[in-house]
Write a structure and sequence with these properties.
alpha/beta, 8 helices, binds D-4-phosphoerythronic acid, six-stranded mixed β-sheet
């Protein structure tokens, strides 16, 4: 599958460039690209992985670490992380990104901030000029269930996202519930809001009941995109 191959290419090069033997506390993101990050780290061998601690960004990420036989740690034990590697739903030309397609962006943002180096890995579909180009379902917003209707109302009538919706589960009745027990709202915004995503991110964050917003503004030091032709585009 060319998309899977491009994910693997990006992940392998990112690990080769940014996960060095002296890096001992490593944050692992969520989604379908980070398994290739873990795969490449395992290939660095048991000697270099012995004593390393891997911090997950949710249940899927934790399963990935445990199943790979790597050391598991918590961010409260290791509040300072050497490097965090994570996927993204879209990355613009200034390395702003949309995250939360997998409903994991709260813990992902904690680990992104806690890391000295934060690296994005993705296939070429995520490499865009402006956010909202390919990933059209909207900005993921984690909200406490008690407040979701009010947050939706504010998004519809005040912040300019009339099509914002509560994310419903597919193989479970009712809404998607995050690892933190919260709901997710997907809020599409027009291009005018995505010129500088920081502004809309701050406005959304201020809505009462919002826990975290899936806009990571200029947090990453580099982004690796696997291309269909087997090349890797690196942006920083
Ligand atoms: O939810 C997230 O932020 C994940 O990182 C996710 O969006 C990345 O998805 P993918 O690696 O499966 O494309």
């Amino acid at each position: 599958d060319p998309i899977e191959q491009s994910k693997r290419l990006a992940a392998y090069q990112a690990v080769d460039n940014h996960v060095q033997p002296q890096h001992r506390v490593i944050g692992i993101g969520s989604g379908s690209t980070v398994p290739y990050v873990v795969e490449r780290i395992v290939q660095q061998g048991p000697a270099v992985n012995k004593g390393r601690v891997f911090i997950p960004t949710g249940f899927q990420s934790k399963q990935l670490i445990v199943e790979a036989g790597l050391g598991l740690g918590d961010v409260d034990q290791y509040p300072t992380i050497d490097v965090t590697l994570d996927g993204a739903d879209e990355v613009d030309h200034l390395l702003n990104c949309v995250k939360g397609g997998g409903a994991c962006h709260l813990r992902e943002k904690v680990l992104a901030e806690a890391a000295s180096t934060f690296i994005l890995v993705a296939d070429h579909r995520k490499n865009v000029q402006y956010l909202g180009t390919n990933f059209t379902q909207g900005v993921p917003i984690e909200v406490v269930p008690f407040a979701y209707a009010k947050v939706l109302q504010n998004l519809h009538h005040i912040l300019g996202s009339p099509n914002a919706t509560l994310r419903m589960a597919i193989k479970k009745a009712g809404p998607v519930v995050s690892d933190n027990g919260n709901f997710i709202i997907d809020a599409p915004f027009g291009r005018e809001h995505m010129e500088d995503p920081y502004v809309i991110m701050a406005q959304i964050k201020m809505l009462t009941g919002v826990v975290e917003v899936g806009l990571f503004c200029k947090m990453a030091q580099a982004a690796y995109f696997g291309n269909a032709d087997g090349s890797v585009t690196i942006r920083w």
